[in-house]
Amino acid sequence: MRKKGNLLKTVVALLLIIVSIAGCASESQQNQTANENEAQSESSSDRAGSESNGTASGDAGELPEPFKIACYDLSVHGAAEDCYRINLERIVNACGGELVYVPMQYTPDGVIDMIEQMLALDVDGIMFMPTTDSILPTIAKMCEEAQVYFGTVYRSVRDSEIQGILEQNPYYCGYTTEDDAGAAYDVGKYLAEQGMTKCAVINLEVGDVGGDDRDIGIKKAAEEFGFEIVAEARGLADAAETAKACESFMAAHPDLDGMINLGTYAMGGVEAMATSISNAGKEDTILLGTCDFYQSQQEWFDKGVIRIGRGGQHLIDNAMTLSNVVNAVIGTPVSEDGPTYVTASNVNVFTGDELREWYERTDSGQNIVFTDKVIKTSLIKYFNPEITQDSFKQFAADWGFDFLRSIEQ
Amino acid sequence: MKTKTKTKLLSYLIPLCLPIILFLIFTIGTRGFGVNSIPIIISQSLIPFILSFSIVIIISTGLFDLSIGTQMIVIGILVVWLSEFMGAPGLLIGSIGGSVMCAALKGGIYRLLRIPSIILSIGLVMILEYFGIEAMRRTTTMVLFVKPEVSFIGAPPYNYIFTVVAAALFYLIYNYTVFGIHIKLVGDNELTAFQVGIKVNKIKYLAFVISGVFVGFATILYTCYSGSIGFGGVGMSTIALVFRPLIAVMIGISLNRFCNNLLLNLFIAVISLNIIFNGLIAFGLPASTQDITLGVFLLIVMSVTENTNRLREWRRRRTVRKEKQKIIA
What we know:
The structure holds 2 protein chains of 2 kinds.
Chain A: H1 2-51, E1 68-73, H2 79-94, E2 98-103, H3 108-120, E3 125-128, H4 136-146, E4 149-153, H5 160-168, E5 172-178, H6 180-193, E6 198-203, H7 209-225, E7 228-234, H8 239-252, E8 258-261, H9 269-279, E9 287-291, H10 298-302, E10 306-311, H11 314-329, E11 342-344, E12 347-349, H12 352-362, H13 372-379, H14 389-397, H15 401-406
Parallel strand pairs in A: 1-2, 1-3, 3-4, 4-5, 5-11, 6-7, 6-8, 8-9, 9-10
Antiparallel strand pairs in A: 10-12
Chain B: H1 2-29, H2 38-60, H3 68-113, H4 117-136, E1 143-145, H5 148-151, H6 158-176, H7 178-188, H8 190-195, H9 200-225, E2 228-230, H10 240-255, H11 262-283, H12 287-306, H13 308-328
Antiparallel strand pairs in B: 1-2
């Protein structure tokens, strides 16, 4: 009996060692990849930097005082997310700062906990995604007491009273959002033009500002273009649950001719929607549209199951808020008159090739989006005093294929 | 004899009324719901049905395991990799073998550390999610696709065959083995079980291992269900996968008061939940209302079943009181 106990202890000890080694190995691998990408981006930024002579007022020798920014981390580690991190770190590093990550929380009190963790890191600025408006006054107070600049991403502030409280706060930099309602409206409009009359929607939980905005957009499109939303499912956890919901939609409404993904946190959720439609042999009768891009949906565009995708906002949303906060931290705010509110442009794709090109340019790690030239001429006022609130906003509004194609690597 | 048979039949009929009434309500109340929905309801019930066996085995021993869903996803990711090289046999062997190994490890850690099972399971959710992320990092998309030549084993009729095999196995283990009796004894009163010579720790360890077998069966169906398996983040998001089977287990155990056949009751509970889910979609109700309805349904079933004895006692007392009054009069 004692021998068995010892054996078990040995096995557990060995397992713990293996887990620790695996953790360290993956961490070092991650660092190595980041360093490689960094090196790659440095070489391209050197090139970009030499091209940008004359436009930027500062150079590598005249960096602002070192600073630290804390950013929420979605804890998602796909190629795209890793690429976003590299691009965001480039913006901070170009100004001589440091970017640290704190795991994202998705509940209102969780977000406040996350902010406390960020502030405990002795940072100069923070950026985060607020799940609801109601937590913002508390966070504003926390940041003011800690004298830390803050900006939000993906979500606008819908409550005017809260907006007023935030605008009184000297450390509030503003937000970046995309037109969520407009995105859903456009997807609905396109599918209605293709002949959709009855659709089912999948969305985030009620109360999620982005999901709620998209709800407003799709309802507006339904009213204007005469289609009916006959069923909905929300907060689906995974691909299997999404597939179940789609099967139920099709069983309950045999005349269903459209499905729209307005938002989901389920990995593989959109692919599960497409698979369900395909398995039911309804590729030709059910039109599928989606807000946000998902990494493996290009094949479903090729097969003709997904008809429209609207997204591509993640990188620009985060980059704009981060730049906004960095500008405030280093003493050159985008505007002296108050917070800067940015609405980033979304992109429509209709084919697999378009989506592949988008990924190639933004998410693959092959191309650097925020080169030194872009950072120093369009985003950071320290390097280019001619940046105004309008030019800053315009940069986000111009986000799209044309902008990406114009970047010199 | 006749009365006995009648009583037994009646005891089966009461739980069966639950899905039948729900089915009728939604069939009459909505246009899209009806006989055409039955295949979907049954096929959607298979995974939670099998997972409920695993939960019952664990709960009967007085333990609690929230890591079952996480285990299913992580093993699912690994077996999709395995199926790339070994095809369908890789998926089958990997699912059951991997789940049993994982469960054995879980049981071993529980035996060694002697901490409350709920705390252990939360810790394991975090560790397993880490392994899931590490495995998914090898992909560029965070989604793995199961090849059609493999995923067919999760499609009809194979999914039904797996479910029947798992159900038969559960029925035999739970009702006709010494282990089945021992887990119930341990769950009822650990001290008494120990005093009568049952090796409590061994039984608990075996409960983890046997529950792993059922998680393995569920993994096969789960992996093949949507043709893809995705896993994007840590943060204990996978715990949610346990909730629906757990609700089914609660309802199933409650229904056991009427009919002493847990397997049937679990099936009835899972089917009822899916009838509600599909019926509400056919109703076109908003998702928030769907959640409220499911919550209300759980409360109604639990309160009715839990208070049956009190109700019976109240009726008996009322009758006695009336008879007493009659005699006095």
